[in-house]
Design brief:
The complex is a heterodimer of chains A (542) and B (203). Chain A is 67% helix and 0% strand. Chain A has 542 residues and is mostly helical. The longest helix of chain A is centred in the first third of the chain and has 35 residues. Chain A is globular. Chain B has seven helices and no strands. Chain B is elongated, with a radius of gyration of 21 Å. The N terminus of chain B is likely disordered. The chains are: A mainly alpha (542), B mainly alpha (203).
Chain lengths: 542, 203
Amino acid sequence: MASIAIPRHVAYERPAILDWLTTVDHKKLGILYLYVTMFFFAVGGVLALLVRTQLAVADNNFVSNHTYNQIFTMHASAMLFLFIIPVWAGFGNYMVPLQIGANDMAFPRINAMSFWLVPPAGLIMFGGFLVDGGSAAAGWTAYSPLAKTLGTGMDMWIIAVLLIGISSTVGAANFLVTMFRMRAPGMTMFRMPIFCWTMLVTSFLQLLATPVLAAGLVMLFIDRNFGGSFFDPNGGGNVILWQNVFWFYSHPAVYIMILPGMGIVSEILPVFARKPLFGYKAFVFATMGIGGLGFSVWAHHMFTTGAVLKPFFGFMTALIGIPTGVKIFNWLGTLWRGSISFTSPMLFALGFVSMFLIGGINGTFSAAVPVDFAIHDTYFVVAHIHYVLFGGSVFAVFGGLYYWFPKIWGRKLNEKLGVLHFTLMIIGFNLTFFPMHLLGLDGMPRRIATYSSANDWDLLNSIATVGAFLIAVSMIPFIVNCVMTFMKPKDQPNDPWEGNTLEWATASPPPVHNFDELPEIHSERPLFDLRHGAPASHQAPR
Amino acid sequence: MAVHAAVHKQNEGMSNGMLGFILFIASEVMFFGGLFAAYFIARADAPSWPPEEMLSPEKIASGVKLELELALPAVATVVLVSSSFVIQWGVIQIRKGNRSGLIWALFITLIMGLTFLSMQMYDYSQLPFRASDTIYGTTFFTLTGFHGAHVAGGAIFIFVCLARSLGGQFSAEHHEAIEACSMYWHFVDVVWIALFTTLYIVG
């Protein structure tokens, strides 16, 4: 058959900047997601340092009360809506199609739209600092009636969160269709890598919970701008309604923020313990259990309103401890008698398991209604959310970056700097957040701009501030490491870690079409099978 | 690339686009679920409904009344519900390969949808209360307003499908956009039936 060879590099050549701005390739969009979200992580981190500087000593007036409200609100909003939620979309974008042996996401152009909603959302949210009255300052929870009294910055916050909501809802549908319909031959649902499973459950949560938040944001916008009475008792409305609608999203959202991190850790531990994940199916069902139960526990954030059925929500919340405990045993069972190598990704994964365990335990305290009445809205809760979201999610983000860096950028990060980064970060993290348990039990309320020296909270707060700056210092070896590594040539083989999953079956970084050839898939560890031969019990019926 | 050909062969049945569209509608259901929840919570809290006692004397003096007119919305309901049957007839026609039947069905559905929207606009202009008049007005205008916006979105979808069918882009084998469009129109219709029942008949 006669054919004409089309030189592809000529046919597709265009300026790099145009290529990045118009790309629909899941890998490039994944990288864009990672860059943008890490930028917002840095911005949110600077705001956190301002918070800690203000709280370092008693009766401080480093910033005014109103500025303080804006800073802690924007810290949380940036970290949750502009960092953690979209950073998983970044990892998911890059890894899910590779891990299931597909050549792209199901809807590449919709995928690009999901990404391009994130930067404008960030600009709009931070644009609030430029308008009269400043940015949003009602906390990331934006409770009414406080949220109704603020200036235009609050409306900008609502619009930004709506944009992020659209991005994550549409992205979720994209991930679901990709995983349901684009899997390679032999890749059954129960052979999908664990990271894919966690992205699948996360996507269901995003698809079904985010629109409810959108409905709540729309109501808040109408109340603020069109004289609505949704949250105004004077017009027959109900302030608790906002809390119900908000937490109906935001409790599933905490699983949206942690499940993909659990997935990344479950990818890293087997590779560096040289063992299969202990209890793959149990892990999958536990993930589904967390996702399902996640819809029935939202009112545990609202025990002290007295307007919710406390025994039900307390009981359901305690139930979530069971699938979460199953996962802890999955991880411990994977490590048990493994041949462990303490590489940087492994250190971050182990940091995740240990810090998340503490976050789980102090979360169980909060689930007990009588205890919750004592610690509600104190620094104990701040300690809890940071043990799960920083000790959990952020450690998983860095674990994922160290683990997949060779695949994404074709170069391996320096191990010594990685270990230094981890050591500084885990010490700084515990210095910052462990004292907050004690402050909370001593009654220090969250969100206060300063405190009296009569409270005797100075020492613990100063320790927390030192810790926060140590976390910031720990970013220096990371940034230096990235810069140094980017200056090195791309020298990584397909599979530098001897991984288990399909992303290691292709070049590092992968070509545009992802795979020149796929190995046969007989188990959830196709690359292990490729190296060692598939066990007979795993042979697919043909 | 042979691998990916195999992938598509393996996955017969519903297409990626259709599955994605169904998931999108699921998220829309949750959105309206949130708005309905707000309405029912307000209803459950209210000592009386409509909550006339929440109106200030000045507002009552200026003619604000919390009451709905049933006749015109009932006609609009008949128009919208019938239009769902018309578009479904169009789907059946294109499945048989009848292009002109599809074109007529889309054209009539579009007219009926726009008629519904015009009736709603007129009804809005005649109502004796506004969105700022108690939770009654707020929920009424929010729920019907967002539904109206979805009808308008559906009308745009139908318009695009109509233009494409005039261009001869659909056939018995290839008409997925029509299936999706009619599914969306049925969804909008079902939401309206729930709204009409809740706001006009029960309310």
